[in-house]
Write a structure and sequence with these properties.
mainly alpha; single chain; Arc Repressor Mutant, subunit A; 3 strands; globular
């Protein structure tokens, strides 16, 4: 499955909208893990990031299948305004999606099941989802179980700052995805 097809199917299965670039990246990260698809994720400031997913999103925007709007948010500690980028499928995308669902039925069904699993695991905000992605990334890199305190220490190797409580909540979410448990 191509990253672009997976992203288009993910948008549809997520109800046609995704609020925020970080949210989009982390949902696609978990979908890739669950689908056992490599969307090119590596460590980044806000957790795993894929330039391939970002490029696929740009391509969908350029084709007129996804629109982007900016929502003003809060300000950060230094007084700069934080802007959230929201994405929505356009009406033009619906015809393309319908055709792709017929031609790539198995891929569509896999994405739809993975999105259902993601939604069932919990409704995390983008920061919590980012921490969950970091926790899973660390567990995957380690290749063996780790305690929450171990994950906090490992996070520092990537320049990530997380607390034990944040990791515990993230691992609870990962458990809902049936992806991980914390070692005792």
């Amino acid at each position: 499955m191509t990253t672009t097809d997976a992203l288009l199917f993910a948008y549809d299965a997520l109800g046609g909208t995704v609020q925020g670039k970080t949210n989009l990246q982390k949902k696609m990260y978990f979908l890739g893990v669950m689908l056992q698809e490599d969307f090119g994720y590596g460590p980044h400031y806000y957790g795993p990031y894929s330039s391939g997913v970002a490029a696929a999103n740009q391509q969908l925007k350029a084709l007129g299948y996804v629109s982007e709007s900016k929502a003003a948010g809060s300000t950060d500690r230094s007084g700069f305004e934080i802007v959230r980028h929201d994405f929505r499928l356009t009406p033009d995308a619906q015809e393309v999606i319908a055709a792709k669902k017929k031609g790539l039925r198995e891929d569509w069904e896999r994405v739809e099941r993975a999105v259902h699993r993601l939604n069932r695991a919990g409704n995390l905000n983008y920061m919590e989802l980012s921490i969950a992605a970091k926790a899973y990334f660390l567990l995957d890199q380690r290749g063996k179980p780790a305690g929450a305190d171990d994950l906090v220490r490992l996070a520092h190797q990537f320049g990530w700052t997380v607390t034990e409580q944040e990791v515990e909540k993230a691992v609870e979410f990962l458990g809902g995805l049936e992806l991980a448990t914390v070692a005792a």
